[in-house]
Amino acid sequence: MFEETSHEYNLLAKASVDHCVKCTICETQCPVMAVTPLFAGPKYVGPQAERFRRGESVDHTLDYCSSCGTCTLVCPQGVKIAELNSVARAAMKKDHMPLRDQLISRTTAMGAVMSPVAPLANAALALKPIRFVAEKTVGIHRQAAMPKSSGKPFQSWWAKHTPPAGAGTRGRVIFFHGCAGNWFEVETSIKAVEVLEHLGFGVIVPKQGCCGMALQSNGIYDTARKWVRQLVEDLNVAPQDLTIVSTAGSCQGMLKHEAREIMGVTDDSLAAMGARTRDICEFLLDLAERGELPLGFQPVKLTCVYHAPCQLRGQGMGSPAVQLLRLIPGVEIVESQSACCGIAGTYGFKKEKYEIAAAVGKPLFEQVKRVNPQFALCDTETCRWQLRGHTGAQVEHPIWLLHKAYGL
User: Fold this and answer.
1) Rg (CA), the chain
2) Residue 68 maps to which CATH number?
3) How far apart are CA 282 and CA 26, in angstroms?
4) In the listed set 93, 124, 152, which residue is the last one of a domain according to the structure?
5) Is 6 a member of any domain?
6) Residue 77 CB: number of other CB atoms within 10 A?
7) Which among 102, 135, 377, 401 counts the fewest CB atoms within 10 Å?
């Protein structure tokens, strides 16, 4: 199943291998290789090893790659290093997938189980004895920053929500919240809808499942392909030319390129949906650049770090959040100087990788503590969990500041 479904992609990806000139730029920029000798490096386990693979990895240090994608971004020859590594790791793990990786890949199931008993579940996850047992039995590190259940899913809020007068006067958009945005980062989803409606957009929120990103990053490709195809059906509501606006940075990357470039999902419907999907800050900045975004912002006196996650940088959109937030009087944004926070989806939850993830993110944590130890901004959910856990700061999506500046 794996080899057949990925065959077309593998041929295309392998074609990029011969473009590698062994310049080692990918290795000088790799955040994991910089902090541990356990990873042989993206060049060695990537294009160099690819020439000798026959369905299995020739170097099992490949499993320490975090899939942050930095190597692909910095390669001057266009070699798909991260994508090659992800495919090879999935092949390596397909016959011996740890139970831990199966469990932490199912965010929707986790949210559904925790939500009805949110106070109890959140308290239990904060207890050291329970976390110790989970580390010993399942392999989730006792100090990993686990998400907190909101207790009320975003979809429940949406079902009772009444749009304000004026919503819809500028047309309609589809809102893609992602599974974490439904179960854990609910306030972010609510604030995004309220900002869009304040600007005059009618918001459509279809029932939607998981994109399969966490499954894909753990090498569980068959299930991930089913889930992303189902999500395409979920979001493909009429009329089918509406822009899809998202606050789920990692999940939109799945629709835009990862399902195709890593898992070989070449469905026309996925390609069309990826082309219609916009990050919410990207969408709003586009309005601003056309002179169509109301700029009557209330001043917000705030200086804080903004960290652009790996997944967002991989989508090639620049830093729309930074440009947008600098339109708000009183806001001073200090851009992160770090390539990665270390969490890399579920990577930093794993007991054997937690310390590596913490070392990767350490410069960022220190920058947050220097600039503003109370507050920071980041676009993706797991990165926010990582930053909260290691800094103690309130870390939110940039839409929070826009919501405040509009006086909502």
Assistant:
1) 21
2) 1.10.1060.10
3) 27
4) 93
5) yes
6) 14
7) 102
pTM: 0.92
Rounded Cα distance between 312 and 64, Å, is: 21
Binned average pLDDT, 10 residues per bin, the chain of 408 residues: 41 70 93 94 88 69 91 92 87 82 91 93 93 94 92 96 94 95 97 98 95 92 94 88 93 92 90 94 96 94 95 86 96 94 93 96 97 97 96 97 96
Cβ contact 277:246 at 8 Å: yes
Nearest one of 162, 45, 182 to 107, comparing CA atoms: 182
- Measured CA to CA, the distance from residue 13 to residue 7 in angstroms comes to 10
**Tokens 């929120």 sit at which residue?**
205
Helix axes 186-198, 280-289, angle to 10 degrees: 20
Backbone angles phi, psi at 279, to 5 degrees: -60, 145
Token representation of residue 285: 């900045």
Judge contact between 391 and 373, C-beta under 8 A: yes
Provide the domain count of the chain: 2
Q: Which two tokens stand for residue 113?
A: 């189980």
Q: Which amino acid is at 368?
A: V
Q: Is 177 a member of any domain?
A: no
**b/e 8-38 (16+ beta carbons within 10 angstroms → b):** ebbeebbebbeebeeeebbbebbbbbebeee
| Domain boundaries, position 34 | 2-93
Domain presence at residue 49: yes
Whether the ω angle into residue 320 lies within 30 degrees of 0, i.e. cis, is: no
